[in-house]
Amino acid sequence: MPAPRDGGGRLTGVGWLLLAVLFAVPAYVVVVTPFALEWQALCAVVMIGAALLMRHAKSRQMLIALMVVSLLASSRYLYWRLTQTLPIGPQFDGWDLFLASGLVFAELYAYVILLFGFVQTAWPLGRKPVPLPEDESSWPTVDVFIPTYNEPLKVVRPTVLAALALDWPRDKLRIHVLDDGRREEFRTFCETVGVVHVTRADNKHAKAGNINAALKKTHGELIAIFDCDHIPTRSFLQFTVGTMMADPTVSLVQTPHHFFSPDPFERNLNTFRKVPNEGELFYGLIQDGNDFWDASFFCGSCAVLRRTALEQIGGIATETVTEDAHTSLRMHARGWTSAYINIPQAAGLATESLSAHVGQRIRWARGMAQIFRVDNPFLMKGLKAGQRICYANAMMHFFYGLPRLIFLTSPLGYLLLGADIIAAQGWMVLAYAAPHVLLATITNSRVQGRFRHSFWSEAYETVLALFILWPTLLAFINPRLGKFNVTAKGGIVNRDYFDKDIARPYYFLFLLNALGFAVGLVRFFTDAEHADTVLLNVGWTFYNLLIIGCALAVASERRQVRHSVRVRVRLPALLRRRGAQQTFEVSTLDVSDRGIALDLPEALNVEPGEPVQVVLIPQRSDVWLDGSVRRAGHGMLAMEIGEMNIEQESALVNALYGRADAWLQWRDMRAVDRPLLALREVARFGLLGGFKFTRWLGGEIVRLVSPRRQGTATQGDG
Prior knowledge:
Layout: H1 13-32, H2 37-54, H3 60-84, H4 94-121, E1 142-148, H5 153-164, E2 173-179, H6 184-193, E3 196-198, H7 206-215, E4 222-225, E5 231-232, H8 236-246, E6 250-254, E7 258-259, H9 264-269, H10 280-292, E8 303-306, H11 307-312, H12 323-333, E9 337-340, E10 346-348, H13 354-374, H14 385-396, H15 401-417, H16 426-448, H17 456-477, E11 497-498, H18 500-526, H19 531-554, E12 556-557, E13 567-568, E14 572-577, E15 584-591, E16 595-599, E17 611-616, E18 625-633, E19 636-641, H20 646-656, H21 675-717
Parallel strand pairs: 1-2, 1-4, 2-3, 6-9, 7-10
Antiparallel strand pairs: 4-8, 5-10, 6-8, 11-12, 13-15, 14-15, 14-17, 15-16, 16-19, 17-18, 18-19
């Protein structure tokens, strides 16, 4: 019998209920039916084979079917774990059950995150910008807020100059630098370029308080907010405001946070623009998926907010250190909607060092835990079901510290302590776990392949797990604990070094797993009765060693002494000797605010130190930049830019950062995920990190022992 449909051919509520019932019965049978080892192995092969075939299908419906098959495999595994593998009985002791319960907790957590993640990303909305009305007089007034506290002026200047070039009527746009540092040089700069320098008497509630104070001094209908290092393209408002004009219920239009400098993972592992970074999954896919459920949320920068919505909820939320997500949660609960336009329209600086990166993530994790405690999305009134799931998953994600630690140490309970954490034969564990793990990997690769490569999540989480464990736990217990910290930007790394302080948790975990691996190899050759179980745990431990080794590789900081980030970009330009009439058409190879690399024309012979001039994008600009040749030859000229006036600096900023298409091609240049290749890459970095750590540890041991040897030698000579 066909499911009931309405007049438009869509399923009615009763139709959906019937489909759910029809699916639930066979799903229940698949999940709970026990199999002997041979039949379970056959079931695993069939499910994995089906997933490998389904992952190549292009339709969204087939992708959702793949998600369903993955969830069935995971549900079957967890049902088996809970009903047949817990160490309960007189042959087990309390220690076994304690360790087993920890692993089951971690697996249940991972299952919930997997389920919620599938819901979030099942159908990304792919929203397009809404064109603005032709009548500019109907466009709203916009206040641009650029909050800053202790960042140097060199970081803030490009953002301000780019904001001044926004395509918007001058009488409807005001730029405000919200200077919580109350610095004289900022006031002078603002007066020079013609923007408003806003200060307040104190720094209460940090960034949230800074913005709220500025709200009381301004009157624009819309508020565009940029972190002080997030440089907008000139088309930012053109891409975002049309959506708010078309729908007066939209309180927020968020765009991606894009970074033109490498983060510590990308710099230390040399993966910049080769492997998607940590944030691309969120901004490239998850926020787009959230938008389908009307749950895309404010990320603190690169967004436009409606003043009336902010005023209705009392301004930016101040109760937590992630004021951005908390603010949009409250706006959604009051019935406001949001929008996400997945087109990079601003770009900023990533964190320079691993320690700064960890500090930033600790703040995010603590803030999300605070929101989960203060305004739990499961309990908050006014939210839709999809919004509850999306917000809850964003918050629960940051509780991965303890589960990740459990996954990294669980096999050691069996190898080093002899604990029966999973009371089952090793081959049976593999037969049930393989489809659970592999189908989740295959499905996530299909869903996330453009924005996150397989196995990198484990590496990211391992780097942060122990650092966010206590902050999230304490914030959940007492949301008032902790304070806002500003992420430093625009710094340098003077030398290559192994950050032993930030890496301390990793090398303890690495040494423990190395010990467990060695003991496991011995047991494999001496304990024939349990060889399959030992082998399973040895394999698990070896994988953990690779993941921890990858974390150690990230902790090996690479030298970064350039004060300015060079952006590889091809721009048309004109080049000439200073003051000469003859010009040469060239294109850039890379550009920064201190230098430019250009194609060297064959007809132009220049020497190092010779003064030259260049104009970028000559069809749109006639501002010449002065500089001198640093080196020339082999078809390339590198010039150092001299001192610039405001007009020249603005021309450079707008050519490099302000173009509407400045960042559109960056995502397209990366390869789509191939799980086996990704595993090989992570394994390579894991081995590299293990080697670097072993070499560093050997050096430390020699350093500690050497003085004693010298002392002994001296006494003998005496």
